[in-house]
Design goal:
single chain; 28% helix; binds the ligand CSC[C@H]1O[C@H](OP(=O)(O)O)[C@H](O)[C@@H]1O; binds adenine; S-methyl-5-thioadenosine phosphorylase activity; transferase; purine salvage; Nucleoside_phosphorylase_sf; glycosyltransferase
């Protein structure tokens, strides 16, 4: 197998309210072709503090894609084609915890996937692959994001379980209470699944920052989700998210040691289909995501 040490390339997937980032040298919006379809938008590439960066607005500029129709596979594949090694996902989320208040950031470390209408894997008939998702986020990248947020004076919580719902409607009161009281979720959003699963399949380290915009519907003093309040909080959060992103290159550095947690080797023993039984068309589509294993 090939060595995974090399150059850091930071990918940032910006969620609701974050449609670009500033300060990149040689900034350029680039159309990236993918065999998995068109990504959400062009990808903004450039260099920040000597580290290559690639920014993709998850919903597209102008917020075109709904949570269910974001082209998750094309997005992860396109970032992989640009050489991205580490993805920082930034997302607007509701909170199930009194102490995770609107305006706070949460470094997510677990997910409950309740989505049901999305393509969730690059693998399938003709090339079956399995990866571990017990620890779906990368501790090295998550630590860097946490430290960056703390250094900016942002109220940030380390660790939290993100409930991924299909949407686009928000939860009923009964669902909100069940996610919080029975399932023990901390935050809720509509987009980090299957994104995190696909990043793991593509052997890209993934960390997720939840920017809290509301208390969903469970909170007796806050009532139901109010989209006007969400947008107001989002606007404030976006500036903090940009500052956090700007600190990431200095935290990670340009030279990249292999991930100590194995994210960049997740597929090492994961492909089950015998070489002679593989579908050449699917293998060809997997050139970026799994080329290290399939063609290594
Ligand atoms: C604007 S509220 C609902 C919307 O915001 C979140 O998007 P993202 O995760 O991309 O920041 C949430 O998941 C919904 O898609
Ligand atoms: N309460 C909520 N539920 C789902 N997604 C969200 N994004 C922001 N707030 C949310």
């Amino acid at each position: 197998m090939s060595d995974t040490a090399g150059e850091t390339v930071i990918g940032v997937i910006g969620g609701s309210g974050l449609y670009d980032i500033d300060g990149l040298e040689n900034a350029q919006w680039r159309q990236v072709e993918s065999p998995w379809g068109a990504p959400s938008d062009a990808i903004l590439t450039g260099v920040l503090d000597g580290v290559k960066m690639a920014f993709l607005p998850r919903h597209g500029r102008g917020h075109v894609h709904a949570p269910s129709t974001v082209p998750y596979r094309a997005n992860i594949d396109a970032l992989k084609r640009l050489g991205v090694t580490d993805i920082l996902s930034v997302s607007a989320c509701g909170s199930f915890r009194e102490d995770m208040a609107p305006g706070d950031f949460v470094v997510v470390d677990q997910f409950i996937d309740r989505t049901f209408a999305r393509d969730k894997s690059f693998f399938g008939t003709g090339c079956v692959g399995h990866v571990s998702l017990a620890h779906p986020t990368c501790p090295r990248l998550s630590d860097a994001a946490y430290e960056a947020a703390k250094s900016l004076g942002i109220t940030v919580h380390m660790g939290g379980t993100y409930l991924a719902m299909e949407g686009p409607q928000f939860s009923t009161l009964a669902e909100s209470k069940m996610y919080r009281e029975v399932w023990g979720a901390d935050v809720i959003g509509m987009t980090n699944m299957p994104e995190a699963k696909l990043a793991r399949e593509a052997e890209i380290c993934y960390a997720s920052i939840a920017m809290i915009t509301d208390y969903d519907s469970w909170h007796p003093d806050h009532g139901a989700v109010d989209i006007a309040q969400i947008i107001a909080t989002l606007t404030g959060n976006a500036a903090k998210a940009r500052d956090l992103v700007a600190r990431m290159p200095a935290r990670l550095g340009a030279a990249r040691a292999p991930c100590p947690h194995g994210c960049d080797r997740a597929l090492e023993y994961g492909i089950m289909t015998a070489p002679e039984a593989r579908d050449p068309a699917l293998v060809a589509k997997l050139d970026a995501v799994a080329g290290r294993i399939l063609n290594g």
